[in-house]
Write a structure and sequence with these properties.
With 340 residues, the chain is mainly α. The protein has 2 domains: 133 residues, Orthogonal Bundle (Farnesyl Diphosphate Synthase); 189 residues, Farnesyl Diphosphate Synthase, CATH 1.10.600.10. The chain is built from 16 helices and 2 strands. It has a two-stranded antiparallel ribbon with strand order 1-2. Strand 1 and strand 2 form a beta hairpin. Helix 4 runs antiparallel to helix 5, helix 4 packs across helix 9 and helix 15 runs antiparallel to helix 16. The longest helix has 34 residues. The protein is globular, with a radius of gyration of 20 Å. The N terminus is likely disordered.
């Protein structure tokens, strides 16, 4: 894994776990590269471009950190599978939003069209579940070991399937709420739990056997996922485009109402009169300035930091070794550092 391509919080965790994590992340990256090239001549180049666009790789890192250095190849496959689902949702989101840019680069949608982009997203999603499949046991293989491996695989498939359904429901909720400037914070949080937090939660539990740490790690993932989404929504309002890789106010232009707007509306009720249907790029910039002027961005950031602290508190109470608690706390702090 090329460390120059990932942000400092990820690099810091990699350096802190130098003895094992970089090697395991490199294995995940290798699996991802193999998967995208399996798309053949028609889909392979676009799938490869999606992978090459980079990303924080926080979700596969969480899989490996929560599974631990002694975890077997099942954790590596799970880490790749979670990232493939994440990649698939990004490609599909760009189709739904007709997005021209993602991470500052042209999207598959803008380069190859709606049909090809939809097919690329479908490819990535299907390959995610193929990563978790376990073939028939080899002749002479220990029956008990083969049965345990199959049971672990079935559990992983069920966890990832549940998260994938949540992602779909979250997307439907976002479409249902589009352009509704009167939606409240509770609806926003419900949507974020489905569309973002559930995949983080999945990442924290899919790579390890179910044990006494399950509840704490799932809660850690949920809180980190919510904080991540809140800060992402702050960045959409605050920009700048050269940092976010997309135009300022892109969510507003898409009709997506987020927590900064909702809390800004409480301070400036005239925001309820905004017509997102009629918004253009200049109007989005002006609306972002009005939101920022209310102090809502600082309030959302404080809420996100509170959730990060709750995530860290859950890890402290979990029966994990001190080294992994520290690494997970670094990931949590990195979510906030991403905004700073």
């Amino acid at each position: 894994m090329n460390r120059s391509a990932v942000p400092p919080p990820v690099t810091q965790v990699m350096e802190a776990a130098e003895s094992w994590l970089p090697r395991r992340m490199a294995q995940v990256e290798s699996r991802l590269a193999d998967v995208v090239t399996a798309g053949g001549e028609r889909l392979g180049p676009d799938a490869s471009a999606t992978l090459e666009a980079g990303g924080k790789r926080l979700r596969p890192m969480l899989v490996l950190l929560c599974a631990g250095p002694e975890a077997g190849p099942g954790a590596t496959r799970a880490a790749a599978a979670v990232e493939l689902v994440h990649m698939a949702t990004l490609v599909h989101d760009d189709v739904l939003d007709a997005a021209p840019l993602r991470r500052g680069r042209p999207t598959v949608f803008s380069e190859s069209g709606r049909e090809r982009a939809t097919a690329v997203g479908d490819l990535l999603l299907s390959r995610a579940f193929a990563e978790l499949a376990v073939g028939p046991p080899d002749p002479g293989e220990d029956a008990a070991a083969a049965g345990a491996e199959r049971a672990a695989s079935e559990r992983q498939v069920a966890i990832l399937a549940d998260a994938s359904v949540a992602l779909a429901l979250g997307e439907l909720a976002q479409r249902r709420d589009a352009f509704d400037v009167g939606m409240d914070a509770e609806r926003y949080l419900d949507r974020c739990l489905l569309k973002t937090a559930r995949l983080f939660e999945c990442a924290c539990v899919i790579g390890r056997d179910e044990d006494a740490t399950q509840e704490a790690l799932a809660g850690f993932g949920t809180e980190i996922g919510l904080a991540f989404q809140m800060l992402d929504d702050v960045l959409d309002v605050s920009g700048p485009p050269e940092r976010t890789g997309k135009a300022r106010g892109t969510d507003l232009l898409d009709g997506t109402v987020t927590l900064p707007f909702i809390w800004a509306r409480e301070e400036d009720p005239s925001l309820s009169e905004a017509d997102l249907h009629e918004l253009d790029a200049e109007g989005a910039e002006e609306l972002c300035e009005r939101i920022a002027a209310t102090g809502a961005l600082e309030r959302v950031c404080a809420e996100a930091r509170g959730r990060v602290q709750r995530a860290k508190d859950l890890v402290v109470s979990a029966p994990l070794d001190a080294g992994r608690r520290e690494l997970l706390a670094m990931v949590a702090d990195g979510v906030v550092e991403r905004y700073s």
